[in-house]
Predict the structure.
Amino acid sequence: MKRKIELSAKTSPKIKLLRKAFFALAVDPFLKGINIRSRASHLRSQLSIEIEKALYPLKPSKIHGQITDFDLYGGIDISNSIKEKELTKRTGIFGNPSQFIYLAMSERIGSSLAGKICLAIDKRQTSYVISLDEGLEDERTPYSILDRLAFAFDLNDERQLQRVNLSKIRDNLPEIRSRLLKVHISEKMKNQFSITALALGITSLRAPIFALRTARALAAIRGKSFVSKNDFIMAIQLTLAHKATQIPTIQEPQKQEEEQEETNDTKNEENNDPNEMDIPQEMIISAIESTLPKDVLGEMKLLSPKKDTLNSNASGSGQRKLGNRRGSPKPSRKMPFDTSKRLDLISTLRSAAPWQKLRRELHGSPDNSIIIYKDDLFVRQYEEKSDRLIIFTVDASGSNAIGRLGEAKGAIEYLLGEAYANRDHVSLIAFRGTKAEVLLPATRSLVQAKKKLADLPGGGGTPIASGLEKAVEISITARNKGLTPTIAIMTDGKANISLEGQVDKKQALSDSENFCMVIQNLKIPAIVIDTSNRPQQPAKDLAQKANAKYIPMPRADAKKLSNAISKSSNEFHTNQ
Amino acid sequence: MRDTFPFTAIVGQHEMKQALILAAIDSSIGGVLVLGDRGTGKSTIVRSLASLLPKIRAEENCPYNCPKINNQCDFCKKKQEGKVVQKTSPVVDLPLGSTEDRVVGSLDIEAALKNGEKNFEPGLLARANRGFLYIDEVNLLEDHIVDLLLDAAASGENLVEREGMSIRHQSKFVLIGSGNPEEGELRPQLLDRFGLSVEVKSPEDIDERIEVVKRRDEYEVNPKKFLRNWLPEEKKLREKILLARKLIKTVTISDQILKKCATLCVEIGADGLRGELTLLRTARAYAAFNGRREVEENHLQEICLPALRHRLRKNPLDEAGSDVRISRAVAGILNS
């Protein structure tokens, strides 16, 4: 409670920036939009009001994960056509210049919808895109969309929004806009945008272009005809900081400098001569740093485009996210219809349409009725294609590393190649030291898998239980997403670290046995590859407890391994 | 239509621009696959193609872009008198998540409901006839759509058997696909269909990056002026393409060069014979583009990377490698 009061008394710098972003958006439609990360809260509802105010007279329209092409692109409005008894069409969300787009829960937007939205942005079929990201932790708006929007804010730590008074801008909008492109910007600054973007590890070229536009917009709003130092710095804060993937290596910047800048905002502007401006690199960097979140590194990892892979196959909502290929639509079919099925209205009408003239004559019905026979009905069909997920659980412990980690890596690499050919998903878990680590969540990107594998170090204890725990976790989530998991464990079976990470052989053994039972009970197909020098009992026991296939590595050349894995997963499949 | 950023004004990305030009000179080279990071101007380049390419002469309003009125096309059949007009060369976007209906075409519901007529509503494959079909994020495209495309691209026509209709129409297009390989692999069958494959990277040269931003800015401040400034360049390139199209028929290839092509493909272990064919066609187009009447060794050298890069039988996990392997083979064979 106390904190809230404190904050409302003094507007945080981030909110101030946000206000500037709204201003800039209102003035320059080229800036395309903003991504706001914020969970549902009081602030969020305030936000919607402010956005609508900023973009007035545009009207909001919402795009959600399950939106149909009809809603997006428009077309023949069937229900209305039937009601009005004449053909009516409806325009879609795209191509309607009087609307702007809310992307609700943008972190859950699948790659295909994201593709459509990007296309609409590129082709200027939409005015603004306001993407509202309600994601937790590592859920993000698709990178392709983020890259096409000028601004992004994370408001999860903010409590209070500043009311924006836009009337001044709105009244002068035509004038400001006409001034916009005449705003002078020095060559040096123009160059600096590109240089800064590169220094921040932003490879996309859209970002510096946005920065340039924003600087102009800020100057135009102030009624100036040149870009001042503050406009410049602020443009960088607004457009580049959130896209940064690295912090430039420049001597320790000082934070105070930036804050001073902020407070002096209005005073020293007039003194600036645009032509002989020299902006020290440190100042730019510090400006950026001040807008970066506390957990910089963690955030940055998430922002880097690779993260997007996780979402790339997402289709719409919630839990079924990663690589969920359940229900890719198949052509609908004519079949007896009951309420448990979904009617494909368009196809039904399509099949009935050519006969309407005949049928009307036959039944003597009025001209505008549509006569549909039972066998016109089309039912939607979805293909439940369950993809296989192979979870490699690799023992990178000391006992194994000395022995045959290299060989195991080679074997996995071969298996990954096979997985590629079968279009399987793969996941990689390594256990060593005191616990297991998920190196790679379920993905199809083998380039990543290979990188992770190559970087895998060896040494330390053998926490098999922890490795199995992770493997089971991934299997269960994978099943929920409609994948068929198979666990491939590569170990010598000599567990010596318990689940808690203690050196306790007895406990370690019973812990790993417990998880073997879990694997057996859940009927997850598994395979144990014994990587010890000679086939030995511990790994055999492990396999037996988990009802897994046991393959000693010496005999297992890579090809044999691969066959064994596909066989064991197929057997399980048919048994179930 | 809005003016697009001029093709010639795009900074860098030489390899991609060249591949597109060669494919525009000789469409039998096959498609162009562009793999690389986001925000490197892939889409901008492709979309700027339409205004660069020479206009095509086609029947007015014909959805299939027939060159003149004929008896095959179901639109032209109904017309009594043809009227040939200039049309911009089609560059059609195929968005991810397009339905089968939109791609191949389907029953025209409007005509069906209103008049009880069974008409065919042409899809994207019809619109792309005699032009380019562009798929962004081609590696994320649904498999069943990919199958349709492969079929049409291979046969040059689109055969529709659905809703009691049987329609066959020409669909000759150059497939352009782009994508980011880190987000998913491309199906090998589709990979093989592309004639050329180029890799784009964000320019790392600071001056180049600055130039990109500057030109973009210049364009946005005053698009009309910018386009006017670049018009001569565009025209020059357009004429060069037109000239190359004429010249290509007369370009000869010596047996010696043919042999080198074959040796090259054997050396790197390319599957099938598509490698050689693409190599030849591309080299020929390249020679024509440079105003030569005979394919020379340095022409081969210039185009072997995009023509062969994706044809190596390789371990899918072998990330780099292929460029190096090709270059080595080329150095060994061409200079011998």
About this structure: Residues 223-247 of chain B form the longest helix (25 residues). Chain B touches chain A through 57 residues (CB under 8 Å). The two ends of chain B are 52 Å apart (CA to CA).
